[in-house]
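Hey L., structure's done. Input below.
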Amino acid sequence: MSEVAAQAPPASTGHRERLLAGMAASVREKGFRQTKISDVVRHARTSRRTFYEQFPDKETCYLELFEATGTALVEHVEAAVDPAAPWDRQVDQAIDAYVAGLALDADLMVSYARELPALGAAAVARERALMDRFADLVMRLADTESMRDAGVPPVAPETAVMLVGGLRELVTRRAEQGGEPASISAVAKDVVKAVLDPARQR
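Output:
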């Protein structure tokens, strides 16, 4: 898979990775509900037997794809932030990386936001766990030495969840409307900077 999205793999990629990429390709094409295992193996250029050797059903494959792309996005955002930059520039870097990562595969992102919860408690738990990972990332990025030196206050867990959840919903809605997710970056930056602004602590 690419740094933030499951793209078509080279022929040498292992069966599991090829099937995850096949699931991603089918979800982009027709959504998860309409995806059949035959679609996944067609995109993966493998067999149904191989699929069932790796996954018990299509839901398990989809959930693993969700975790893989989510993990890649967390790592992508963290790597994009320069801790030596001014605090407001760090905010810009984080949001630009997050929005660009989602925009890179908007169809998958919309599917995760709208179709994943219908898969039940296990899916909701994974979605919440990823939200918590992003919230933890926000708290870590706001609690570096350079941020403290600039007077940026620590971010409470509840605040981090609100910021991450609100940004994801905003980007998802823009993608569903056919707009560019990046077009909401300015609004997102204003909101996050207002929360972190050192002047609020004076």
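The chain is about 70% helix and 0% strand. The CA atoms of residues 88 and 193 lie 7 Å apart.

-- N.
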